[in-house]
Amino acid sequence: MSSELFTLTYGALVTQLCKDYENDEDVNKQLDKMGYNIGVRLIEDFLARSNVGRCHDFRETADVIAKVAFKMYLGITPSITNWSPAGDEFSLILENNPLVDFVELPDNHSSLIYSNLLCGVLRGALEMVQMAVEARFVQDTLKGDGVTEIRMRFIRRIEDNLPAGEE
Amino acid sequence: MADEALFLLLHNEMVSGVYKSAEQGEVENGRCITKLENMGFRVGQGLIERFTKDTARFKDELDIMKFICKDFWTTVFKKQIDNLRTNHQGIYVLQDNKFRLLTQMSAGKQYLEHASKYLAFTCGLIRGGLSNLGIKSIVTAEVSSMPAFLEYNG
């Protein structure tokens, strides 16, 4: 039941952002920023609750994200596919995305990345464990695709322990 | 199912977001509170629709308020309202001794003035829920000490 609270609240947020910002690109950026701020805090909660140890490589990280984190916070287990030959990129395939329950994109918002908060969350959380990554949606059921696909790309390990900045 | 932690973080981010893009001053503060309250309203409307799909018709206003205090509050905040008082003339006071959205903040008077920012969404939530149950209301909240002791006047 409480997932509906989150879903509906997220919907109200996106609606408000669309009113506040004139174009979809700005809304996408805002969602990413907010997601980042959430991610840098969520990781603490995650580490405290999940007892997961340090991940030794990107593959382990992928597993933890899909099987533990997504399950814990959104109740779904995306599948991991499309590994790049170098092992630095993979896709998360979400058969269903709880954020978009009850949601339809109106025609005038075709470039809105509705669930972009998720990309920010992933980026922020992983930065706190010393990984710089890029997360982006490449397929979206809201836009008519069969599944929702998030592409994750490992950029580099963050060696310096600079304090996290809020954006 | 989305974890409570995720919702709390989202709510806090929403409050910061709304205030970040606003300027200083009483009027702006009011506008931000209204924005948050309106968001809560929409969510409350949606939520109550989902919750009461299969429940029996409510007998009267008091029955509805009891539903809000027990089922609704439990589903949203994982606990019931601690105390419900009414003057039987349309005013209800709901008291929550450990309001979940404020428990993360330090106890003490210093943050009291900011507490209203974190209550606006919830006021809207209640107002929206009541609205879809056919009740027009005004919902206000008060914090007397952190973590909260809240009063809602419906």
From TrEMBL, chain A:
Q: What is this protein called?
A: Trafficking protein particle complex subunit
Stated role: May play a role in vesicular transport from endoplasmic reticulum to Golgi.
Natural source organism: Vulpes vulpes (Red fox)
Compartment list: Endoplasmic reticulum; Golgi apparatus, cis-Golgi network
Per the UniProt record, the lineage of the source organism begins with:
Eukaryota, Metazoa, Chordata, Craniata, Vertebrata
GO terms (BP aspect)? Golgi vesicle transport
Keyword Lipoprotein appears in the UniProt entry: yes
**Gene this protein is translated from:** TRAPPC3
Subunit structure of this entry?
Answer: Homodimer. Component of the multisubunit transport protein particle (TRAPP) complex, which includes at least TRAPPC2, TRAPPC2L, TRAPPC3, TRAPPC3L, TRAPPC4, TRAPPC5, TRAPPC8, TRAPPC9, TRAPPC10, TRAPPC11 and TRAPPC12. Heterodimer with TRAPPC6A. The heterodimer TRAPPC3-TRAPPC6A interacts with TRAPPC2L. Heterodimer with TRAPPC6b. The heterodimer TRAPPC6B-TRAPPC3 interacts with TRAPPC1 likely providing a core for TRAPP complex formation.
- The organism's superkingdom is given as Eukaryota
- GO CC terms on record? endoplasmic reticulum; Golgi apparatus; TRAPP complex
Gene3D superfamilies assigned: Trafficking protein particle complex subunit 3
| UniProt KW rRNA-binding keyword | no
Query: Which keywords accompany this UniProt record?
Result: Endoplasmic reticulum, ER-Golgi transport, Golgi apparatus, Lipoprotein, Palmitate, Transport
UniProt-listed InterPro entries: Bet3, NO_sig/Golgi_transp_ligand-bd, TRAPP_component
Pfam family, any one: TRAPP
Q: Which SUPFAM superfamilies match?
A: Ligand-binding domain in the NO signalling and Golgi transport (SSF111126)
The family note in this entry says:
Belongs to the TRAPP small subunits family. BET3 subfamily.
Automatic annotation (TrEMBL), chain B:
Q: Where in the cell is it found?
A: Endoplasmic reticulum; Golgi apparatus, cis-Golgi network
A Gene Ontology biological process in which this protein takes part is: endoplasmic reticulum to Golgi vesicle-mediated transport
Name the InterPro entries for this protein.
Answer: NO_sig/Golgi_transp_ligand-bd, TRAPP_component, TRAPPC6/Trs33
Q: Which keywords are on file for this protein? A: Endoplasmic reticulum, Golgi apparatus, Neurogenesis
GO CC term, one of those recorded: trans-Golgi network
* Pfam families xrefs: TRAPP (PF04051)
Q: What does this protein do?
A: Component of a transport protein particle (TRAPP) complex that may function in specific stages of inter-organelle traffic. Specifically involved in the early development of neural circuitry, likely by controlling the frequency and amplitude of intracellular calcium transients implicated in the regulation of neuron differentiation and survival.
- Family indicated by similarity: Belongs to the TRAPP small subunits family. BET3 subfamily.
Q: What does the subunit section of this Swiss-Prot or TrEMBL entry state?
A: Homodimer. Part of a TRAPP complex. Heterodimer with TRAPPC3. The heterodimer TRAPPC6B-TRAPPC3 interacts with TRAPPC1 likely providing a core for TRAPP complex formation.
Please state what the protein is called.
Trafficking protein particle complex subunit 6B
Q: Native species of this protein?
A: Vulpes vulpes (Red fox)
